From TrEMBL:
PROSITE patterns: ADH_ZINC. InterPro entries: ADH-like_C (IPR013149), ADH-like_N (IPR013154), ADH_Zn_CS (IPR002328), ER (IPR020843), GroES-like_sf (IPR011032), MycoS_dep_FDH (IPR017816), NAD(P)-bd_dom_sf (IPR036291). One of its GO terms (biological process) is formaldehyde catabolic process. This is S-(Hydroxymethyl)mycothiol dehydrogenase. Its cofactor is Zn(2+).
């Protein structure tokens, strides 16, 4: 059993605090990881606010890199000393999605069987099955993706973001929308996930990449990551018409809704070209509804899809995107606004809500 410092939230809307927790040695199919970096993601704030469930206390953190400390019986994909990116979709290989060759939709993903606990034995629920705002964490082997080759210490903070938000945005464009070279892409909402979708559009070879937001700082970030055009939604009468004007009057081939409210979903629906694709990657609040005439759904054609973690297969997509980063084709460093300590997680939540950062990253 290992005593380590970690960030815990004990009840809904209570502050995230640093305290000592107990992490067991790995059992069969489990891996003990020395955490090196972990990004501060909106999902962690959702856990704190009770938006994910009420299984408090939660051990927060999930966008992480680390070094394998020890492995349990039967683990063959990683070994002690390996550098890994943690992911929250450890596919089972046996469910109906995996059986039909679509493991990125796996319906029975794995987490560690053993629980990390407070010192008094209270079991912790790790965020997305990871819980990486901690000096060590225990995960299922499939949640570890080995990264071959050397990465500088300051590069790990950037690469770790592929564990959630950056992958969600890039994957929405590359995987869910299957964006092709020369197509046009519009992204509505340019927080961390939306800006990642912009970077994904550039990586896919889109030639018109339109970023839409109400915040000039976010639009500036989108331009740095590859947006060819920006639309400040607070300065125009009609976002849909603005996107059409930038796409020859037709609308974009792909529109990504990275906000997830009824208004932006409707904008995304109508901002598509005929037979265009809409991808919803922004997480809607429970009970959110939308009203679009069914004849419009039929008449406009195309596809309406949601993206789960960018429909990624971590074992395939994380190494590929790390190589794109190494080759200078994907600027993951641009997503890291600040590097912080475990004690700074709660202030980082406040900065994130205010839109002052793309990502704060805890370095251990």
């Amino acid at each position: 059993m290992h005593e380590v410092q970690a960030v815990v939230v004990h009840a809904k809307d209570e502050p995230a605090v640093v305290e000592t927790i107990l992490v067991p040695d790995p059992g069969p199919g489990e891996v003990l990881v020395d955490v090196r970096t972990c990004g501060v993601c909106q999902t962690d704030a959702h856990y704190q606010a009770g938006g994910v469930g009420d299984d408090f206390p939660y051990l927060l953190g999930h966008e992480a890199t680390g070094t394998v400390n020890a492995v349990g019986e039967g683990v063959t994909n990683v070994a002690p000393g390996d550098t890994v990116v943690l992911n929250w979709r450890a596919v089972c290989g046996e469910c109906r999605a995996c059986a039909k060759g679509q493991p990125w939709y796996c319906f029975d993903t794995h987490n560690a069987e053993q629980k990390m606990t407070l010192k008094d034995g209270t079991e912790l629920e790790p965020a997305l099955g990871i819980g990486a705002f901690a000096e060590k964490t225990l995960v299922a082997a499939g949640q570890c993706t080995k990264i071959d080759g050397d990465l500088a210490e300051d590069q790990l903070a950037s690469v770790g973001l592929l564990g959630c938000g950056v992958m969600a945005g890039i994957g929405a464009v590359l995987n869910t929308a299957d964006t092709q070279r020369g197509e046009s892409v519009a992204v509505i909402g340019c927080g961390g996930v939306g800006v990642a979708a912009v970077a994904g559009a550039q990586l896919a070879g889109a030639t018109t990449i339109i970023a839409v937001d109400v915040d000039e700082k976010k639009l500036d970030a989108a331009q740095r990551l590859g947006a060819t055009d920006v639309v400040n939604a607070s300065d125009v009468k009609d976002v849909v018409e603005s996107i059409r004007e930038l796409t020859g009057g037709f609308g974009a081939d792909v529109v990504v809704d990275a906000v997830g409210v009824a208004e932006t979903f409707k904008q995304a629906f109508y901002a598509r070209d005929l037979a265009g694709r809409l991808v919803l990657v922004g997480v809607p609040s429970p009970g959110t509804t939308w009203e679009i005439p069914l004849d419009e759904v039929f008449g406009r054609g195309g596809a309406i899809r949601s993206a789960w973690y960018g429909d990624c297969l971590p074992s395939r997509d994380i190494p590929m995107l790390v190589e794109q980063y190494r080759l200078g084709r994907l600027d993951l460093d641009a997503f890291v606004t600040e590097r912080i300590a475990l004690d700074d997680v709660q202030p980082a939540f406040d900065k994130m809500r205010a839109g002052d950062v793309l990502r704060s990253v805890v370095e251990l």
